[in-house]
Amino acid sequence: MASDVPPPLVPAMPLPDNAVENAVAHLDGLASDLLKKTGVPGIAIAVVHGGKIVYAKGFGVKDNRLAYDRQNEVNPDTVFQLASVSKSVSSTVVAQQVSANAIGWDTPVVSKLPWFALSDPAVTKMVNVGDLFSHRSGLPDHVGDMLEDLGYDRRYVLERLRDQPLDPFRISYAYTNFGLTAAAEAVATSAGKPWEDLADEAVFKPLDMSSTSYRFSDYEGRPNRALGHIHIDGRFEPLYTRDPDPEAPAGGASSSANDMAHWLEMVLANGSYGGKQVIDPKALLPAITPQIVSSPASEPAMRSGFYGYGFNVGTTSAARTELSHSGAFELGSGTNFVILPSADVGIVALTNGTASGVPEALTATFADLVQFGTAREDWLTLYQKLITPMEKPVGSLVGQQPPANPAPAAPLSTYVGTYTNGYWGPARVTEQDGQLQLELGTNLKVPLKHWDGNVFTYEWVSENSPPGSIGKATFDGSKLTLEYYDETGKGSFYR
Description:
Number of helices: 15
Number of strands: 22
Oligomer: single chain
CATH class of the largest domain: Alpha Beta
Strand content: 15-25%
Shape: globular
CATH architecture of the largest domain: 3-Layer(aba) Sandwich
């Protein structure tokens, strides 16, 4: 039978009967099974289909130190940190501003932020909002994240993007939180208000997302919030707090499954919500269609992956376009959403544990059920293979034993002082109670333990250094080299 739609819109196979309804029926068992297998404390899930929420439910607990009761159980209104799912939400904030002709995806960032610069003056002039929202500026992968770990604010980190070498402009893909944040800052500056306020007015209020915010203080103030749990020694523990305010547009949003369902409704309805056009479809379309190849095929038959503006854009094995994004905090969050526009369905899964593969496995299995009526892959195993390396401790001395007969250190007083570095800021070495202390930024304050000769070590946990990480500090006269911060040759500090 001939199709009545153009060939590019025809999937490889029709949906099974009652596809979404039958897929939804599996979610209770799927969620419970994933939590049991992994130990992730809690998950909230919502599904949107036919312009309405057809499923919204929570499982597990908000804080695994407490008993399982109504006060501690996760429900669809429990607020989670979204991590990098924030990028997709931010993209719709920008699209709303594009709709209002307040900004363009092609607006040069420097036209709104005159102080902004990259290392190549020519690229500085050209790089636009869309370039940074699609990670094609040439900036290195995850640049600036380690500065954020040290406690530096948004402006400090953004101003140091100019110190980074660039890959070829607009033909290189590298995922950068602070590149996207710079573009969002340009949009907010153009609007004449902080990004956090702009998002409230442009998207959250029109979509009735009353529990959603880009302010960490709002998340902390929610009585119904899920605490972040880090995976350590085989358990999930709420040991750390992740404050993502410096990169709020890229990773700092918090929301509930119910609120995110409203957002999914809007995206599926081409920018419309509650009978009102919140975003012009023409402004939204560039965000949810390919702008750069993010995952090149490694063999001819393989499907490539693409990135739009804040959205992953791919093609499923049923030849259906899929929009998605994951989010993860090492310190305790894992999130994911998947949208299948041709099936008019979207699902979001929010968890309060270190990246585990759970939200991705749940949404991928759901997408299989919708398209094929059965799960075609062991998605949890696949995602865990991909995600587990993220928990690997960093440092060349990890797993090594200290020398049996180390060379002695010099008198500790000879190491004391302030060692300067134009990128990382000053490293302060002090002596307290017969032991050296290292301070860097406002967040790193650790004892230095003697290893061998003029080499000392320190241990710490941050968003980018999982438990078990070991930093090596080497003194050489007036020079201090911190191995962890020297990956790109910027780790030398001078007294």
